[in-house]
Amino acid sequence: MTNPTFHGLSAGDQLGNLEYTVDDALMAEYRELVGCGGCYPNLLADDCRALLVQRCGSLDLTTVWRRLELLRPPIAGRRVQVGGWLREIEERHGFPLLRVAAFAVDEIGTEILRSEAAFVVCGCEDSQEPDVPQSGSPASVVQGFSDGMVGGGFNLGRLTLPDGGADRSTALLAGWLEGQLGRHYGDDFRWGGTLSLAYLAPAVPGGAVAGDAVVVGCDRDAGGAVKTRLVVSVFNRAGARIAVGEALITSPSPRLL
Fold first, then answer.
1. How confident is the model at residue 123, as a pLDDT?
2. Which of 48, 169, 178, 202 is the most exposed place for a label (fewest CB within 10 A)?
């Protein structure tokens, strides 16, 4: 498409602002869903999707990938303020593909979360979903990593997705991975870690998923900090991979120093 638009929007246009409060009740509900390691309940708000729907109205969106940069866990009782913009408009297999970015801070200006996501806008519920994006998106993290790759790793456990719609299940996967990786790496992940996740198949509400993480890189920088790179995978009950991604953790996190 040449100079594409969507609902009157062009790439670079602002999508407005959101505001919500993370309170103790929301944090408790989030940890009940994702485990005690979870610290970012606003992941369930799915800022990029929420901004797009607020600006354009009800849309049939399929999340293709998400990228999260965790800056500082939100503090209970503080308002979270989110701004976002439309980064890119493409066309895939006849469907619009929208790339959205968002940035969340709390009421005193503390950076909380940078996020980015790509959505396909489907014409109807039974429309065929397009393939995951080409290189240049988080889907490219799967390239070069075979299922038989040798490397240290750990099990991420299991999660039963609650009823509540496919959108909520998709958002919950990112929250669950945040909680599990936070449980293993602590504040080094929660303060400055990144997670990119490409969705390969729908996360079915009510279904069970399992995950694992494999260390594919571990380097020490000039200052002595260790940078760990993981490939994370999520599987459905049948053992089929439904999401794959990459996590980056620096230990100790420079945001804690």
1. 57
2. 202
Q: Is residue 196 in some structural domain?
A: yes
Q: Judge contact between 96 and 89, C-beta under 8 A.
A: yes
User: Could you tell me the CATH number of the domain that includes residue 159?
Assistant: 3.10.129.10
The answer to whether residues 238 and 202 touch, using CB atoms and an 8 Å cutoff, is no
Tens of pLDDT along 18-66?
999 999 999 999 999 898 889 999 998 899 999 999 999 988 899 999 9
Has this prediction a pTM greater than 0.90? Answer: no
Residue span of the structural domain in which 212 resides: 14-124+132-256
| Spatial separation of the C-alpha atoms in residues 165 and 179, rounded to whole Å | 21
User: Are the C-beta atoms of residues 98 and 11 closer than 8 Å to each other?
Assistant: no
162 Cα distance to chain centroid:
18
Burial (0-12, 13-18, 19+ Cβ within 10 Å), 240 = exposed
Total domains, the chain? 1
- Enumerate residues 6+ apart whose C-beta is below 8 A from 223: none
Confidence of residue 131 (pLDDT cuts 50, 70, 90): very low
